[in-house]
C-alpha cells in the first residue's frame, strides 16, 4: 500500500481508538526508509504521537538457527514490531515502561507474524479488549480482521473435524441452496 493511502487511514483509526488507552502495533521490514516514514509521518498522522517501543522478531528454522544469515545483504532473519500508544498520561507511562523484547519463533508461513495479542502484557491489553488488524491474513478470536487474504485459509478442507461433547459434536449440517 502506498504512503498516501496509509495516511488516509488516519480518520478511521482515530475514530476506532479507545480514548481510555489504545495501542497500535506495526510490523516493519528492515528498510530504514520504512521505519523513518512510520515514526516521523504515519504514527503522528494516525494520532499516535506518544511513546513507542520496538520489539524484534527473530525468525529461526526448526533447528534454532536464523532462517538467513544475520549479516545477509539480501534478506535479514528479523523484523521489527513498533508499538505506539495514545491515551491518558497514566496509560502512556505504563506503556513506556515496557522493556524492548526479542521474539524468537519459527515462521508459520510466508509473511505470517507471531500473534501480537498473546505477547502483550494483560495489564495494558486485556485479553477481551477490542482489537483491529489491518492487512490481516487470518481470522483471530476477538479481533476485527481486515485484509485481502483474511479468508484465504478458512476453507473447511484445511481443517480436521473432531467430535467434541455437547451440541456442536458430530458432522456439520448440510446447507441447501
From TrEMBL:
InterPro entries: MT-A70-like. One of its GO terms (molecular function) is methyltransferase activity. PROSITE patterns: MT_A70 (PS51143). GO terms for cellular component: nucleus. Belongs to the MT-A70-like family. This is Uncharacterized protein. It comes from Achlya hypogyna.
